[in-house]
## 1
Amino acid sequence: MMIEIIFLILPVVFALSLKKGSDKDLSRYREEAKEQFRAYRAKSSDARFAFNGADAEIVKEDESITSDEDNGVVVHYRLTCFARNAAGEYFMYVSNQNGRPFF
């Protein structure tokens, strides 16, 4: 009887541990993407075309998350930011897990 209870509870505990792991992965990916945004620079002699992620105002954010259907582990994460520079010009920034964002 006790063994049966253990076998009933074990899958629930395992599923909860995977969920917790995927949340940790997601927060890690999210923080890496935001750090990538803050570190991004585009220099230009014309202030309208210069961009500094640390100083830019994020107007809108959107996340794209792909996770494994079986275990919920994050497979791909992408953060898209629509931001405004100090000169009031708008830019679109898309993070990339390999460190080369689309700007």
## 2
Amino acid sequence: MQHEVRQSDVYPKLELLNLNLNLETGESPPSPMKNKGRMTNCCATILLILLFVADVFTDIACGVELILNDYYTYGYVMLLLVLAPGVLAIIGELYKCCVYEGFCCRNAMDWLYLLVSPLFTVIMMALGTCHITCQREAVYLRSLEGFITAACQIIFSLYIASKGTLIHSLAQTLHYLTTTDPEQIQLFEDADRPPKWFWGLIQVYSLLFSFLSLLQTVLYFNECAKKTTSFWRFLVTIPFYSCTIIYRTITFTLLLIFFKEYVLIPVFLIFLFNVISFKILGLDLPRSIVYGVASIVVPAGFNRCRNPKLQPLGYVTDEVRYGERSPEQMELFRERSKRFLAIHHIFGGLVLGVSLALMWIMLNYSEMYSPLIEWTILPLPFINDYVLPVIAIGFLGSTVFTIMYCCTILCCFEDEYVYPLTIH
């Protein structure tokens, strides 16, 4: 039947038409809560895309600026770190084709898209709001960027700044903050700063967005991909992960400055303890190695499921059946997570604490690092009075929030621990 549609009743007619179609097909009309959830999901996706683009852009811009300022090695290393997730993703795709599907399978050329990994990641993040396959691929690539590029960029940015590699605007700002000459202070405050001057702070922007990127990655990897999320969860988890990231990245930076290549010793020990911890939880060796690398800076993967055939990092949602777990199994899963967090915190703190103590003794009671200016622009009183106390405060905060996490999150949220029942 044809109806004459007037401009004044277009929207009521459309709503009535949608309702009739839903009744004929047996589908219920979309509820306001569902539409609100979709809108929230779209807004969150847009924010995540903006954060990802800002992180990649500032890293690339910082690398280019370092090259233009004649710091060629540092600039090229920073650009290589941006390319690292794409290279690792290509290796993972080739490995998956060879082991699980055969190199001549129909998906053997999927890795070609990863040649432009940042652009492909943005596309997958945009399409992930309506396609679960795209969502898995997006969070997988996003996690590689967070755990590999962002974590390394934080340490590397702190390292090159501590070595005195500063772009002009940042150098002027640090001189203003450290000088006691009133004339120099007044000259800096009265200076006219064009937009190009603020662009010279690109090292600060890169460091800030790398920190936010790593924090967002670990929050999603450990907390957001759950059956439920709440404000109280983030009230505990954000300071917990932030304190851990801060004290570990600053510690690794100091060890890299003074131990150079020997910093790989404490890094390897932490990685080894992480792998052993995941094996105790019942994970297979490949998964334990992947999670062990991701957990060097911040704990990751201690409450993820396993299905390496679909995704190397455990991003699987449709295979999880929360109702299949008994209360005894839930208690076992929570105890496993507590066990991992305890091992991660205690052994990581022990390894880094011993390394820092050795570094402090050599700095203060030997001539190994004399003159100190050849190693870092940071004066010894500044390291003793500010840097080391910040590390100690970060470790203390991480300890407190680890206990809070185990006593609150792991005890109050039950349907979220999806480890296999077998313990190796």
## 3
Amino acid sequence: MFLTAVEALAHPTATWWTYLWPTAWALTAATLAGWLALRVIEKHRARPDVEAQGSDPGADDTEPPSTYDRAA
């Protein structure tokens, strides 16, 4: 956004500016794509393995129901 503001306000005419401005946006897109890929990997690793836990990963048959499961 800083480079866009510079272009809008200062109207730079340097020859290197025509390369810098699109490169900044390309780097932004590449950074976003990299972040997205890392986020997907992170979410995949954090997800519990359903096959190892059985059909219902939330079921825990080893403990009896506690008293808070009953109505008053």
## 4
Amino acid sequence: MPEAYLYNSTDQKDITNGNVSLGGFNGYLIVNFLRHLNGTMDILSFANHSDLMMNAKRLAGGRYIDAGANFVTDQSMTEYTSFIGGTRYCIVVPSAERLPLEDYPKHLMHISVHLFLCFVILVNVMLKRIAYPRMSFTAILYASLKVSMMQGISCREFRNLRSSDKLLQVFIHLYNLLMTSLICSKFIRLFTLGVYEPEIDDVQTLVQSGLRIMIFDDEHIRIFNDIELPRNLSDRLLFVDRKEFEKHFFALNRSLAYIATSGHTMQLDYVQEQLSRPKLRIASSQLCTVYQNLRLPIRYDMSTTYFVDSFIRRVQEADLFDKWMKMTLLHARKIGLVTQAPYEPSEMLPLPLALFENLFVKFFMGLTLSFIVFVIECILSFWKKRRTARKYGKNHNDIA
């Protein structure tokens, strides 16, 4: 969306003396200033941006040009142009996508937590083996797992433990309570806020993403160098015209990164206003240039220069810039210069049963293993009883 544009309307007939009106943020600024002075204006167009940069220093069509309708950053105009605000170039990157629910359990506990739990069980087994040398290894392992799974023991059993084992039992239970609280809180946070891919916030993550960077002007080569990006990213620059750039940028194409100005990013925020989560975002300050002063070009010998500065200060104090920007976006949407992304409600998905599939599989495997062990024990018990019966039967026959 341009900073200023013309459209057919009689809304500003008192200023333009016709059915042509000046729109855009700068249009509102100039029109309101002329109404403040009770003045009028004639609108002249320029062929290209280079003519616009020089419009405050020369004649056009035999007439003096009092003010330009587009911002400039020309430092040579500092003494006689009004400062409006700042702008900078930033790289706009896709927002991190939300991971599927099936990947959530992987982020629930770090591998170090599992290793520490195994270490606690091992220490418990070693201490019990030393403290109770006559106790079978199976019984020791079962007791250690029982404590690690927060299974309590009776008071009588606790009193019969050795002092070292009592201390170990107490501290393991405290550790288990702490871990249970942490896991529950993290479990709630994961399913409330979601888990997302790593964000692109610096040069390294931008390189790893493999995104191509779209540029719509040769001047952005200098901007690209000012951000001090590595030279290997220069091969990823994609040069297009402004129309093609805005087509992909405002269509929220997530397969590209973009170098955009503050004006583009403000319009981007408006386009994504109805989305539950923005699809594109501004990267960190590491991927942005320094701020540049935006000035409204004014003829250096214009008698009303002082009044322009005074008017702009009063506008800034009244916070009218934000109001005019919102009015600009609403009007641009009305005439078809800006289109908002369709309304996207927040995702409130129920937890599918498939998310707990692994737990049910492990539970079924445990039941199957228990049944197999039970069958084996029955077979061994039957074989031992039969062998004992044969042995006693043979001895009885020998005595007879």
